[in-house]
Specification:
Layout (H helix, E strand, L loop, with lengths): L2 H14 L5 H22 L5 H5 L3 H13 L4 H22 L24 H10 L13 H17 L3 H5 L15 E4 L5 E4 L3 H11 L22 H15 L7 H14 L4 H8 L4 H4 L1 H17 L5
Antiparallel strand pairs: 1-2
Helix pairs in contact: 1-2, 2-5, 6-7, 7-9, 7-11, 11-14
Length: 310
C-alpha cells in the first residue's frame, strides 16, 4: 500500500470512526500531504507502508526542521506532529506495522493564544447592527439577509456557539419565543450539549423566520442567497464589512462573539466549570484561557481608576 493510499484510509477513519470535525480532517490531510511529500524527496521515492515502518526519529525531526526552515509557525508544527503521530499509530493498529520512530517524536509546545474578546458594548452593537449597516457604495441587502445576519450574530454572542455549530442548525432546531427549552447543539467530535437561550436571541430568530413563512423544518436555519446552507465565509464577510464601517478592531470576527460570550460571563461571576459546559470544551484547561483575558481587563480597569496607579 502506498503512503497516499494509507493517508486516504486514515482520513476516512478519522471522519467516520473518530467523527473528527471537517476542519480537523482537512488540516490533518494537508499535514500528511506535506509529510509524504517531504519523504518522497528525503527517501528518493514515494514511500509505501514498508518505508513508513522503517522511519527513524531522525527522519521525523528532519521533516520538522525543514518545515521550520520554511517559516512554519510553532502551532502548525505542533499540529503536524499530532497528525503524524495519529497516522503512524493508525498504521500500527490496522496494518501491524512497527512504529519505532514515535518514541523519539517530540514536537514544540505552543503557548495557547489568549482569546481576543470585544467589549460588552461592542459585542451587543455588532449583534444588533451587523445586518443593518452597509457600505453606502453598495446596494442595501434584502430584509431577509439583514434579519438573518442579526439573528446569527445574536445567537453567536447570546449562546457562545461556534460558527459551524450555528450554521449546522435546521429550522426545526430554532429556539423561538414562548418556549424555555434549551438549544441542542452538536459540537466537535459530534458531542451534543444543551445551552440556555436568552429571550433576545429567540426574538431575533423569530423576526428572521417571519420573513421565511414557508420554511420547512428540515431546511437550514441560516440559508444563503441560493437557498442552501449559509457559507461561513459569507458570515465572516458580513462582520468584516460592518467592523470597517463601525470602527471595530480587526479581531471582530464570528469567533470573537464566542470569546466575548465566555469572557463576559466570567467577568460577571460565572464559574469556569459551567462556562466549560456551555462552550462544549472537552478540557477545563481550554476554558481557563479566559481567566487571563478577565485578569487583563481587571488590571486595565485598576490602572484607569485607581488614584495611585499612575
Amino acid at each position: 500500500m502506498t503512503g497516499a493510499e494509507a493517508r486516504a484510509r486514515w482520513l476516512d477513519w478519522l471522519a467516520r470512526e473518530r467523527r473528527a470535525a471537517t476542519n480537523t480532517v482537512e488540516a490533518y490531510g494537508r499535514d500528511l500531504r506535506d509529510f509524504l511529500g517531504f519523504l518522497t524527496g528525503h527517501l528518493g521515492e514515494e514511500p509505501d507502508t514498508a518505508a513508513l515502518a522503517g522511519l527513524r526519529a531522525a527522519d521525523l525531526r528532519g521533516f520538522l526542521a525543514a518545515r521550520a526552515a520554511e517559516g512554519v509557525g510553532t502551532a502548525t508544527l505542533a499540529r503536524q506532529v499530532a497528525a503524524i503521530r495519529s497516522f503512524l499509530r493508525y498504521l500500527g493498529r490496522t496494518e501491524g506495522l512497527p512504529t519505532p520512530a514515535l518514541g523519539g517524536l517530540r514536537g514544540p509546545r505552543p503557548k495557547p493564544p489568549v482569546p481576543r474578546a470585544l467589549t460588552p458594548a461592542q459585542a451587543r452593537e455588532a449583534a444588533a447592527q451587523v445586518g443593518t449597516v452597509h457600505d453606502p457604495a453598495r446596494s442595501e441587502a434584502p430584509a431577509e439577509q439583514a434579519a438573518r445576519d442579526i439573528a446569527l450574530f445574536t445567537l453567536l454572542y447570546g449562546c457562545g456557539l461556534r460558527i459551524s455549530e450555528a450554521l449546522a442548525l435546521d429550522v426545526r432546531d430554532a429556539p423561538l419565543p414562548g418556549s424555555e427549552a434549551g438549544l441542542r447543539v452538536v459540537g466537535k467530535g459530534a458531542k451534543p450539549r444543551v445551552v440556555p437561550v436568552l429571550p433576545v436571541v429567540r426574538q431575533a430568530i423569530a423576526d428572521y423566520l417571519a420573513l421565511r413563512p414557508a420554511a420547512g423544518p428540515g431546511e437550514p436555519l441560516f440559508r444563503g442567497a441560493r437557498g442552501g446552507r449559509l457559507d461561513p465565509a459569507v458570515a465572516q464577510k458580513a462582520i468584516r464589512d460592518y467592523r470597517r464601517l463601525a470602527g471595530l478592531p480587526e479581531h471582530a470576527t464570528p469567533h470573537a462573539m464566542r470569546h466575548s460570550f465566555a469572557t463576559h460571563l466570567l467577568g460577571g461571576g460565572g464559574d469556569l466549570r459551567s462556562i466549560q459546559e456551555l462552550l462544549g470544551h472537552a478540557s477545563l484547561s481550554t476554558t481557563q484561557r479566559y481567566t487571563v483575558v478577565d485578569a487583563a481587563g481587571l488590571l486595565a480597569t485598576w490602572r484607569k481608576a485607581h488614584p495611585r496607579a499612575g
